[in-house]
Specification:
Elements (H helix, E strand, L loop, with lengths): L1 E4 L8 E2 L3 E2 L5 E3 L7 H9 L4 E5 L14 H13 L2 H16 L18 H19 L4 H13 L9 H4 L7 H8 L1 H10 L6 H8 L21 H15 L11 H10 L7 H10 L8 E3 L5 E6 L8 E4 L5 E3 L21 H8 L3
Antiparallel strand pairs: 1-5, 2-5, 3-4, 6-7, 7-8, 8-9
Helix pairs in contact: 2-3, 2-4, 3-4, 3-5, 4-5, 4-10, 4-12, 5-9, 8-9, 9-10
The structure holds fe (ii) ion (FE2).
Protein name: HD-GYP domain-containing protein
Organism: Butyribacter intestini
InterPro entries: HD/PDEase_dom (IPR003607), HD_GYP_dom (IPR037522)
């Protein structure tokens, strides 16, 4: 199976994974043959891409890190603001992730549309944060507290005018200040709940603090920032960067990873970024890449060197281990093409997401 952007889909292609609508219902099932009409509808609804199954991608398997059912349940509970459900969902996310028998790798590409962004974003941030916690050897109770904080980090946005939250353009400074209040609002909502772990509340309150003290609400520096908040900050920014929004294109994974590495010790905690890098491949399985010799290829599997995966040439279907193949010793994956986004303005905007 391989990932293909919606612009590159053609009638006759076979879906390798189902496509869900915003309510979690199956829109198109696995093995559906795409038609011109389906492609147009997916495009109008804002889907960025789909997984297809074809001869070239035979044998490439891409696993979900948590079940689609749990993901949808999580998004619904965030939407409803149902804290009791969210507690159960946090337990289920931790237990599904701990059940994985091998190291977890987030290969799946984002198939979301940008409707209902906040709800799905919160579930993604919870999954990524929990995986970071697993790589940092957190015990199960801490993973639960962290996951719960990540699910609810933006719950306070419900107290802000939706016209500002969903504004498809850059915010004014006054609007930006209003949006920043969401961290305190989230804390207040959690604080009203009985038996909410103190570390979960602190994780939520400080998820926009930067290591250098330039964040909010309290401009905390380095070790003053609670560890759950540091992890959620990394997961939050990564997911915001790689998501398609009305005002920006999604960043390639490699670009988002570069951004996190560049912000290490300045915006982000270095240990949280390093743990994150263990779980997220620079080149995910099933994506198409261009190499420095001009050849195009699919990523088949990752190797010990994250920058040199095993790839399959699109021209002849031959697998090349970039880490070991002598003929490809001087060939690398070409740097991503520069997208029109400018990091500064996008960062400012997604800080509000
Ligand atoms: Fe936030």
């Amino acid at each position: 199976m391989r990932y293909i952007s919606i612009e590159k889909t053609k009638p006759g292609m076979i879906l390798g994974k189902e496509v869900f609508d915003d309510e979690g219902r199956i829109l198109l099932s696995v093995n559906t043959k795409l038609t011109k009409e389906y492609i147009t509808r997916l495009s109008i609804r804002g889907y960025q891409g789909v997984y297809i199954e074809d001869e070239l991608s035979r044998g490439i398997k891409i696993d979900e890190v948590i079940s689609v059912e749990l993901r949808n349940r999580g998004a619904q509970a965030v939407k409803d603001g149902n804290i009791d459900d969210l507690k159960t969902i946090a337990k289920d996310i931790v237990s599904q992730l701990l059940d994985k028998d091998k190291s977890i790798s987030i290969d799946i590409q984002d198939l979301r549309t940008y409707d209902n962004y906040t709800y799905k974003h919160s579930v993604n941030v919870a999954v990524i944060s929990t995986i970071i916690g697993i790589y940092l050897s957190y015990d199960e109770e801490s993973l639960y507290e962290l996951c719960l904080a990540a699910l609810m980090h933006d719950i306070g946005k419900t107290k802000i005018d939706p016209a500002i939250i969903n504004k498809p353009a850059r915010l004014t400074m006054a609007e930006y200040r209003l949006v920043q209040e969401h961290a305190r609002y989230s804390y207040d909502i959690l604080d009203q709940n009985w038996l909410m772990p103190a570390r979960t509340k602190q994780g939520v309150l400080h998820h926009h603090e930067n290591e250098d003290g330039t964040g909010y609400p309290d401009r905390l520096v380095g070790d003053e920032i609670p560890s759950y908040a540091k992890i959620i900050h990394v997961a939050d920014v990564y997911d915001a960067l790689t998501s398609k929004r009305p005002y920006k294109k999604p960043y390639a994974l490699s670009e988002a990873i570069e951004y996190l590495m560049g912000g290490s010790n300045v915006l982000f905690d270095r240990k949280a970024v390093e743990a994150f890098l263990e779980a997220v491949p620079v080149y995910a399985k099933g994506i198409e890449v261009t190499m420095t010799n001009g050849e195009k290829a699919l990523v088949v599997a990752n190797s010990s060197n994250p920058l040199r995966p095993i790839v399959r040439l699109i021209s002849n279907g031959k697998d090349i281990d970039l880490n070991n193949d002598k003929d490809y010793i001087s060939v690398t994956i070409a740097p991503h093409t520069v997208v029109e986004n400018d990091f500064t303005s996008v960062y400012e905007k997604f800080e509000c997401d």
